[in-house]
Amino acid sequence: MTEHVVIEKSKGILTLTLARSEKKNALTNAMYGRLADALEAAETDPGARVILIRGQGDMFTSGNDVGEFADIAAGGARGEQHVGRFLRALVQSSRPLIAAVQGRAVGIGTTMLLHCDLVVLAENALLSTPFVSLALVPEAASSLLLPLRIGHARAYEMFALGEPVPAAKAFDWGMANRVVPLGRLDEEAGELAGRLAKQPVGALAVTKRLMRRADVLAAQVATESERFAERLKTAEAREAFTAFAERRPPDFMKLAS
Ligand code: COA
């Protein structure tokens, strides 16, 4: 069991803290496993009426661990890959999900927000989905959810150019419920979680089911995952991961189409 996800429960609120700040909370297979276990267990836990997801340190998360992407691409990853189970649990969770986001939310750090029912951003939050810059494709049903949420033009630009979107703009685009000063982030998210925890859990679950088509989202995740797995094995992806490890920009122009 990894110590990189801290799990706490109090007053009906299950708090999941990404706690690998020395690597900017980059998500490993073990972390996905622990998050998936927690989301699955919450379904039948009367003490987990609301789930709050947050990150330790100066950012929410830098996204999937790029070193682990490189291992998978090189055929070196062993054992069960938990990301699929995490995404299924996220899509199927009947509990209200709240995210508290400071600093960068990269890749899955942003796409998981599309599955959260309330999103609170600190003023310094920066949301980005640089899948194409890593020679990959969108995941977590974001190829469906992001254009629906913010419109095709903005979503395409976020995917294709990977530029970070600042908190104020993300709020204007409908990606968040609140933007607050960094010092008030935990308080605001905690207060919203506390209010939701007092609401009738059954009515919240049915409301969520009516608003989110888990079957449609799961099908989109499955299709994206196939494309994603193919992309991981390409020469473009190898160049992207090597460039990250060598701390240099990738050079895709040297590769044939
Ligand atoms: N996977 C693996 N390691 C990561 C990581 C990631 N996604 N993001 C950061 N790290 C590591 C760095 O390699 C560095 O490790 P080191 O101290 O052993 O050298 C450490 O975390 C600190 O990161 P650093 O890049 O120095 O922090 P920063 O504040 O200058 O930049 C980011 C933060 C998030 C902008 C930058 O780390 C980044 O672009 N990371 C990759 C994001 C990404 O592409 N994620 C995948 C999306 S699909």
Give short descriptive properties of this protein.
alpha/beta; single chain; binds coenzyme A; 45% helix; three-stranded mixed sheet; six-stranded mixed sheet; 257 residues
Architecture overview:
This protein is of the alpha/beta class. The protein has one domain (2-181): 2-enoyl-CoA Hydratase, Chain A, domain 1. Helices cover 45% and strands 15% of the residues. It is built from eleven helices and nine strands. It has helices at 29-42, 66-73, 83-92, 108-111, 142-150, 152-161, 167-172, 185-197, 201-211, 214-232, 235-245, and strands spanning 5-10, 13-18, 50-55, 97-101, 104-106, 118-122, 126-128, 165-166, 178-180. Helix 5 crosses helix 6 and helix 5 crosses helix 10. The longest helix has 19 residues, at 214-232. The structure holds coenzyme A. Coenzyme A (COA) binds next to helix 2 and strand 5.
SSE layout:
Layout: E1 5-10, E2 13-18, H1 29-42, E3 50-55, H2 66-73, H3 83-92, E4 97-101, E5 104-106, H4 108-111, E6 118-122, E7 126-128, H5 142-150, H6 152-161, E8 165-166, H7 167-172, E9 178-180, H8 185-197, H9 201-211, H10 214-232, H11 235-245
Parallel strand pairs: 2-3, 3-4, 4-6, 5-7, 6-9
Antiparallel strand pairs: 1-2, 7-8
Bound molecules: coenzyme A.
Coenzyme A is lined by residues 23-24, 26, 62-67, 104, 106-107, 130-131, 134.
